[in-house]
Design a protein that fits this description.
The chain is built from nine helices and five strands; from the N terminus they run βββαββαααααααα. The chain is α+β, with helices and mostly antiparallel strands and 198 residues long. It folds into three domains: 60 residues, OB fold (Dihydrolipoamide Acetyltransferase, E2P) (Beta Barrel); 67 residues, DNA polymerase, domain 1 (Orthogonal Bundle); 49 residues, Helicase, Ruva Protein, domain 3 (Orthogonal Bundle), CATH 1.10.8. A five-stranded mixed β-barrel has the order 1-2-3-5-4. A hairpin with a 2-residue loop joins strand 4 and strand 5. The longest helix has 15 residues.
Length: 198
């Protein structure tokens, strides 16, 4: 399977690009965000790819990062989400924004994508909410917390209650913002539980 292309950006369209790799032009379908990151025609570029084969079609999808490709694969596992809808979602939401939307059950953000109604958006966030914390955090998603101390203990406590690491860390970070750095572990857990549940 073709996992990555490195070559020259030969041509682009509304939702596709042609990447010239050693004289062979690969047509890759991309989100508008990926197209915006490829650079100018004639420039060197790299795309992560996913090959989809159906009964009467072969289609190469291109992504600016491995994280975007991971989210594309997750999205297309949801009933009613094909490659076109998944690319439409990734055109309006970056992987970080999509991760936050799923973790927060924010269907309205997902519904901004063309071809995604409220019902489908609700299904997407419900089915992917548990997977949102399982994927490696995209750049900008990591929540730095000190090792040891009340905050680390609070994150650990939330994980023991079944929260994904990323969601637990985000909830505790919000609790620290609200209560201050010197807050006790019990207070952090209490506020973080409200933030994680809300």
């Amino acid at each position: 399977m073709i996992a990555k292309l490195r070559g020259i950006l030969d041509e682009t369209g509304a939702d596709w690009a042609v990447i010239d790799v050693a004289g062979v032009g690969y047509l890759v379908h991309c989100s508008s965000k990926t197209l915006g990151q490829l650079g100018e025609t004639g420039a060197a570029c790299t795309v992560f790819t996913d090959l989809q084969v159906s009964e009467n079609d072969m289609r190469l999808l291109g992504f600016a990062s491995g994280t975007e490709r991971d989210w594309f694969r997750l999205l297309t596992q949801v009933q009613g989400v094909g490659s076109k809808v998944a690319l439409a979602i990734l055109s309006v939401l970056s992987p970080e924004e999509l991760q936050r939307a799923c973790a927060a059950l924010d269907a309205a953000s997902v519904a901004r994508a063309q071809g995604v109604g409220p019902k489908l958006a609700g299904r997407i966030v419900n089915e992917l909410k548990d997977k949102a914390g399982a994927l490696p955090s995209a750049p900008g998603m990591a929540v730095p917390l000190p090792r040891g101390g009340a905050s680390a203990d609070a994150v650990s406590a939330l994980q023991n209650l079944g929260f994904k690491p990323a969601i637990a860390a985000q909830a505790v970070a919000r609790a620290i913002d609200e209560l201050g750095e010197g807050a006790a572990e019990g207070d952090l857990i209490r506020v973080a539980l409200k933030r994680a549940a809300g």
